[in-house]
Design goal:
This protein is mainly α. It contains 15 helices and no strands. The two termini are about 35 Å apart.
Amino acid sequence: MTAGMPRQVVTVGTGVAILGLTSFVYLAIVGRVLGPADVVPLTTLWVLINAIGPALFFPLEQEVGRAVAAREAVGLGARPVFLRAAGIGLGLLLLLAAVCAAAGAPLSRWLFDGEVLVLASFFVGSVGLCAQHLTRGAFAGTGNFLRYGVQLGADGVLRLAGALALGLAASTQVGWYAVLLGLSPLVAVLLTAPRPGRLLRDGPPASWQDVGSALGLLIAGSAFAQFVVNAAPIAANLLATADERARVGVFISALVLVRIPLFVFAAVQAALLPGLARLAAVDDGVGYRRRLRSILLLVGGLGLVGLLVVAGIGPWLVQFVYGAEFRSNRADLIPLAGATAAYMLALVLSQALISLRSYRASLAGWAVASLAFVLALLVPAELELRVGTAFLTGAAAGVVFLAVAMANRLRQPLNGRVGTR
């Protein structure tokens, strides 16, 4: 890795570790208080708020981080880029609000057992995630990873503190636990973001090409990527019979646990795209390839460690975290761990393509992965194995396609130009 990268990873990694630890303690509390069946609306909210929110707003972080880093590399201020992205984020929130208002009742019944407060928490959480991804893009693009890490940690501490209070009060109201998930991202932004005038330096006006022209492709690609990683619990909900409802609660809870490496990967991902974009902007092909190889090796090792842990103590770990009622087996957990490892490698390759503005190749890779997931889901099997195998198939297909696309792209000049109009 290049100089500074380990420090960036450690800084963000500390925040990620706090967020990950507090998140799983939060889930352990609600799992024990509510039980496998009653926890389903909340775990569904957890999945959705970490799926639809990033699908819409992580592209803003990607483009803000890439454009800010590229401008900073050649001495240009990036505030106009941020303001343009913020306007786009507001438009996405208005669209999401319209969907929630128009289809609120059926969505609440279908996904959240009629809990309207859970649906409201989903929208509030989306507002917070939009603000988080915008500010994190600015933090990453300028190398301010301390604020990035503190924001992650604050989000986790806030939700855990609320869950502990509700747990000590023996509250079984799903809606109040959902409110914690919705409010914590927004409060974390208020605690960590500086005033707009201090966030970024002013600079030349941002053209639509600087941010907006790629967002359609990025949002589509992000939506497919989120589908691959989060469709499994939704599919389990849809395929399960009434008698399998408790099994769905166990499966989703186990899936969240098995995906712990994704939290660790977030520490690498925060610095990944801006770092590669800087190297591309100055056409440093040797440095670019060296950093990409290092990150692929690091992430591959992380995925392997996760797989070995699940194969060794996975079922015991699920019961240790959630309680004795949450019974699982290795045959169900190992495909989930393998899929998580493959998904992280696909994310690295996708981010690398985006750093070179190969947006269509990134989108195509996630579209192929999504199609592979759906096709694999058609193969009949036991519920948990059927859904887990579909996740693994989709993630593996994405890795293969994106690896081929990246190899082809690296045969061409990096050509990292910075738009200033």
